[in-house]
Amino acid sequence: MAGNIKVIVCPDAQSVARSAAGIFAALIRAKPSAVLGLATGSTPEQTYAELARLHREEKLSFAKVSSFNLDEYWGLDGDHDQSYRYFMNTNLFKHVDIRPWNTQVLNGRAANPFLECQAYETKILSVGGVDLWLLGIGGNGHIAFNEPGSSVDSRTRLVSLAPSTIAANSDGRFFKDPAEVPRCALSAGIGTIREARQLLLLATGAKKASAVAAAVEGPFSPDCPASLLQDHPGCTFIVDKEAAAGLKAPRN
Ligand code: GLP
Questions:
Q1: Which CATH number fits domain 6-184+199-240: 3.90.1150.10, 3.40.50.10490, 3.40.50.720, 3.40.50.1360?
Q2: pTM score, whole prediction
Q3: Is residue 19 over pLDDT 60?
Q4: Is the CB of residue 251 less than 8 Å from the CB of residue 9?
Q5: 210: CA distance to ligand 1 center in Å?
Q6: Dist. CA 36 → ligand 1 center (Å)
Q7: If you take atom 12 of ligand 1, which residue's CA is the nearest one?
């Protein structure tokens, strides 16, 4: 199964961001009403900064774009400074002309998580599906909050976070203490993500090298959720040299 994922290796994180933003910009210019899938975490921050620059300096308009975010911590309000709604508002949405009502981030305080997840899936279908979904990757190979063991056809649902994810997200970049990290999240499923027409996964830094190698060159297996993208017809990874270090086959 391995082999379908296209890998682009860039010299550094800044060029990863520029390439990724360029791909998003080209899509939005070709299709102003594009449906974007978006991600959070440290990795996409520079990509969002570059998209904001393209909006400011090169008239890239998000006025007709709609967006769906991968996931949200369960139990956090959207105005909590560690919620993914807050992350998206501060890193991208407030810097571009996207209409707030066209931005979908799962509600981590929904009265009924099952109904919240169902409504999210229905909304994706109602706009014709996601054109291009941006992804990061966890050190354990997770995508969104689909931890190892998640099935290839999983849908948007309430999930538990792996201890390594709780540790990674409380290393001072986001939460300061593991005790503060919610134990659960709402996450788009792997099946949900795989329905996007194009997938663009970004990875930077040596901490991602083994996950990237497992995803691209390892078996198609729920042990590494990102490997479940191997048979997607339009999946590209853009990685820096450090994140590419574990790959055996030569790339570009
Ligand atoms: C988080 C998010 C993922 C993200 C990943 C990597 O837990 N739920 O969507 O891709 O972990 O994050 P980072 O880019 O900060 O390494």
A1: 3.40.50.1360
A2: 0.97
A3: yes
A4: yes
A5: 15
A6: 17
A7: 41
